[in-house]
Amino acid sequence: MYSSVQTITIDEDNPKYVTDGKCIFTGENNKTLVTLVPTFRGEFVVPSFVQDIYEGCFRSCHVTSIVFHDNVVSIGAWAFAATDLTSLQFPQKITVVKNDMFRNCPNLLYVNLSSKTTIIETRAFKGSSNMVSLEFPPTLETIGEGAFADCQKLVIDLSKNENIGCPKVCLAQT
């Protein structure tokens, strides 16, 4: 079914969506990346015209790494859930790690957050059981409930974060 799609075709007269065969784009100047074919494997380079990554964009894709450019300003919830990512370098303009963004990414070892990150939302890394490294920038203020649930190998160091707000259950089950 959908998980075996290798090429996307959209009528060229479609006023809302366009494709390059492997991705769907929408919005003014195609600035929003909606999805990537789930059969894509390897490294994906986000096109330079993309500013927004849609909710669930890469979900369940076999992508192992993603290269962002400096113009990406938003990444939606569930964007990388259940992917084959091993690591990720956040674009510098991203300030919020949305809910369930990296949920169930068993190959994920580390993430480099933006130096401007202020919030890690609910269940952001839940089930990324092999993640071992995540450096928290001093700008981080809030960690959502269950953000690191089932991340048994992750060592958390908040010593650089003087203004952190963390519900008592944010680290539960780590």
Instruction: State the low-pLDDT regions, or none.
Output: none
Largest sheet: 5 strands, mixed
Number of domains: 1
Termini gap:
35 Å
H-E string: EEEEEEEEEEEEE
Number of helices: 0
What is the CATH homologous superfamily assignment?
A: Ribonuclease Inhibitor
Pfam families: LRR_5
Organism: Trichomonas vaginalis (strain ATCC PRA-98 / G3)
Protein name: Surface antigen BspA-like
Which characteristics define this entry?
174 residues, mainly beta, Leucine-rich repeat, LRR (right-handed beta-alpha superhelix), 5-stranded mixed β-sheet, 13 strands, 0% helix, Surface antigen BspA-like, LRR_dom_sf, LRR_5
Structure description:
The structure is a single chain. The chain is an all-beta fold. The protein has one domain (1-174): Alpha-Beta Horseshoe (Leucine-rich repeat, LRR (right-handed beta-alpha superhelix)). The protein is built from no helices and 13 strands. The N and C termini lie far apart (35 Å). It comes from Trichomonas vaginalis (strain ATCC PRA-98 / G3). This is Surface antigen BspA-like.
What's the helix and strand layout?
Blueprint: E1 17-19, E2 23-26, E3 32-36, E4 41-45, E5 52-53, E6 62-67, E7 74-75, E8 87-89, E9 96-97, E10 110-112, E11 119-120, E12 133-135, E13 142-143
Parallel strand pairs: 3-5, 4-6, 5-7, 8-10, 9-11, 10-12, 11-13
Antiparallel strand pairs: 1-2, 2-3
Characterize this entry briefly:
By secondary structure, this protein is mostly beta strands. 0% of the residues lie in helices and 24% in strands.
